[in-house]
Write a structure and sequence with these properties.
By secondary structure, the protein is an all-alpha fold. 69% of the residues lie in helices and 0% in strands. The longest helix is centred in the middle third of the chain and has 72 residues, at 12-83.
Length: 131
C-alpha cells in the first residue's frame, strides 16, 4: 500500500489504530462540549460583571459629585478670604475621594486536558486487560 498500514482488517495493529481513532473522536467531542459549557458560563459571569461594574460606576459618580460640592464650597471660602486680604487660613483643597476598585473582568476558563483524560482513563484500563 505504501502508507505503512497493514492490509488486513483483522490485523491487531489496524484494530488498535481504529480504536485509538474512535477514542480520539470521543475525546474531541467531550472537549467540544466542555468548551461550549465554558462559553455559556462565561457569558453569565460577564453579564454579572457588567451589572457590578454599573453599580460601581454609579457609586464612584456619587463620590465625585460630593467631592465636587466640597471643592466648590472650599473655593468660595477661599475667594471670600482673598477679598478680605487674607493670604492664609483657607487650608488645602479637599482631597479627591478613593474610588471603588475595579472588578476584574471574568475570562474564559480553559478546559484542562487532565479533566478529559481522567474520564477516559477508566476506559483505557479496560482496553489494557483485553490485550
Amino acid at each position: 500500500m505504501g502508507d505503512g498500514l497493514p492490509r488486513l482488517l483483522t490485523d491487531p495493529a489496524f484494530i488498535n489504530r481504529v480504536a485509538e481513532h474512535e477514542e480520539g473522536q470521543k475525546r474531541e467531542a467531550q472537549e467540544k462540549m466542555a468548551r461550549k459549557e465554558a462559553r455559556v458560563g462565561h457569558k453569565e459571569r460577564l453579564q454579572q460583571w457588567k451589572a457590578a461594574m454599573a453599580v460601581r460606576a454609579e457609586e464612584n459618580e456619587d463620590l465625585l459629585a460630593e467631592w465636587r460640592l466640597e471643592v466648590e464650597k472650599w473655593e468660595e471660602r477661599r475667594a471670600v478670604m482673598k477679598e478680605d486680604g487674607k493670604t492664609r487660613g483657607w487650608g488645602k483643597a479637599p482631597p479627591r475621594p478613593k474610588m471603588a476598585p475595579a472588578i476584574p473582568k471574568p475570562t474564559v476558563r480553559r478546559v484542562v486536558e487532565d479533566d478529559v483524560e481522567e474520564s477516559d482513563s477508566g476506559s483505557e484500563g479496560g482496553d489494557n486487560n483485553n490485550e
